[in-house]
Amino acid sequence: MSTSYQGLIKAINPIESKLNFLLLAIPICCYFAYVSHNETNAFFTSMVAIMPLAFLMGHATEEIALRTSDSIGGLLNATFGNAAEIIICVLALWSAYKAGADSETAVIMIKIVQASLIGSILGNLLLVMGLAFVWGGIHHKVQSFNETQFGSNNSLLLLAVITLVIPTVYHSTVSGIEGDTGVEDLSRAAAVILLGLYMLFLLFQLKTHSDLFATDGTHEHEEPKMTMNEAIALLVISTILVSWMAEILVHSLESAAEEVSMSHLFIGVILLPMFGNAAEHFTAVSVAAKNKMDLSFAIAIGSSTQIAVFVAPLMVLVAWMLGLPLTFEFGLLETVAAFLAVMIVNTIASDGKSNWLEGSMLLGTYAVLALAFWFHP
After folding, report:
1. Confidence label for 218 from pLDDT (cuts 50, 70 and 90)
2. For residue 81, what pLDDT is reported?
3. Residue 34 and residue 21: Cα distance in Å, rounded?
């Protein structure tokens, strides 16, 4: 027993990764939440705690991915990298359900969910991919990635973003009760369609056309540092702790936003995805430095695609089951920002190559959008 979990112990050792020092935020968060009842400090420490936990989830999935192809590895990293986002959104919807669909809390929580979904798309496309391009470009003059992978993901992502635009346009042309009811029905129908298309995309990528996504087998050059049991144990433990921290975060969000005079929109679009998607940040950037751009790209754009065509539709259907009016009408600024992000990524990455300057452009775009959400009332 003493030697069977050495890999797991090493994974959480702060000496191995300085980020693990942030795990100290877990007991500190619990103190603020359950002892001193300081909800503002509980909110910010829970966000900090989610960061290393999301990183550990990413580390566990990367260990599992080392035993698979880059396509499946990227899918695993994107899926479990978005687990924190899914957990936060589900708990926010549950909080809205308990408060009542017509309550002020429900309105705030629904807005937070919508904002965090858009924020995850923006964060993965601009921040994560930008950091990966910059850090990879510093170590390697020019890097290449699979153009087929980019084309398939980007086409599906563009379709999803267009689907997010339509409800906003619809509601602007049809007002009143008919518009409210119509945009709900439209969003729910679109959610089912997007989930169906995502299933077809997985079939295309992993089964019928898997050869088009084949890479040079970079996994073969890196040996796993954990056993499969250790990786699974780390994944389960970190997921449970993320759920716990997310519950504290959602519970304290309203009080913290009011006390620090920060808009719910900025919290949802920028803060929550930045901390919740830490797994994508660290994994995508670290593998980019190793010149494994196929995996880095699969994580970054794959996560955005999953948010748009899997997580967002799933949240609409979950809200529907709970009787909550969550729709794809995310707001004009949020929708336009997501559409422009897809466009600039399509322009920069369409040649299948990347460098640090292109990464800087993506980071600059993200900074401008972040400022727009910061100044938004």
Report:
1. very low
2. 64
3. 22
What percent of the chain is helix, strand and coil (3-state, nearest 5)? Answer: 80, 0, 20
Give the integer Cα–Cα distance in Å for 307 and 294: 19
Provide the pLDDT confidence category of residue 350 given band limits of 50, 70 and 90.
confident
Which residues face 354 on adjacent strands? 143
* CA neighbor of 276 nearest in space, from 46, 94, 114, 96: 46
Which pLDDT does position 143 carry in this prediction? 79
User: What is the structure's pLDDT at 219?
Assistant: 47
Residue (of 112, 56, 102) closest to 83 by Cα position: 56
Of residues 151 and 54, more confidently modeled: 54
CB 269 within 8 A of CB 122: yes
Burial class, 259, CB count within 10 angstroms (exposed 0-12 / middle 13-18 / buried 19+): middle
Task: With CA atoms as reference, report the closest residue to 79 among 95, 93, 60.
Answer: 60
**DSSP string covering 60-87, please?**
HHHHHHTTS-HHHHHHHHHHHHTHHHHH
How many whole angstroms separate alpha carbon 5 and alpha carbon 234? 10
Give the model's confidence band at 364: pLDDT under 50 very low, under 70 low, under 90 confident, else very high: very high
DSSP state of 218: G
| Residue boundaries of the structural domains of the chain | 6-375
Fold of 6-375: A middle domain of Talin 1 (1.20.1420)
Determine if residue 170 is left, alpha or beta; phi over 0 gives left, psi from -120 to 50 gives alpha, anything else beta.
Answer: alpha
In the structure encoding, which two tokens stand for residue 56, read together? 């550990």
Distance CA 69, CA 223 (A): 14
d(CA 100, CA 95) in angstroms, rounded, equals 9
What φ, ψ does residue 87 adopt, rounded to 5°?
-60, -45
For tokens 């609409």, what's the residue? 316
168-187 pLDDT, tens digit per residue, is 888 788 777 777 788 888 99
Residue 1 has pLDDT above 50, yes or no: no
